Amino acid sequence: RGPANAPVTIQLFSDFQCPFCGRIGPTLDQVAERFGNRVRIVWRDYPLPFHQQAMPAAEAAREVFAQGGSEKFWAYHDLLFQNQRELTRENLERFAQQVDGIDMNRFRAALDNNTHRAAVQADMNAVNEAGARIGTPSCFINGRLLQGAQPFPAFEAAINQALEAR
Q1: pLDDT, tens digit, 9 for 90 and up, residues 124-140
Q2: Alpha carbon 143 to chain centroid distance?
Q3: Which end of the chain has the least Cβ crowding within 10 Å, N or C?
């Protein structure tokens, strides 16, 4: 979300099955509203191993992105978090059908073949290779870690600090 050339980039590492991750959405909506084109929000997958449905949900969301770009991804993202306790394979397909323009044969094939598993794993590996120890949700705001489902004032302060540093 937001322009690629925004002065502040928020890298959001999240898990579709994590209840704390579901709480950050409204805060990020406030960030987008308050800061507009000065902020870009980039989703990064970090499905926790004890959330059995998190990896398939991450792969499903990546396929929606592959087919429909950011707008479709964020619509699917919202559906997943609205139905966070129902992330079965059947429901992942049902939610994808609610997003206009998704080719369901291609969607099913991507899930069957784990087409996006390596990309999800790459997001997780990037954190580990950087030596960061995070939980979900975690945000890197122009490289500085803001951990947890923090309230809007914490994001506002971190973003203002990043804007001042530019």
Answers
A1: 999 888 888 888 999 99
A2: 17
A3: C
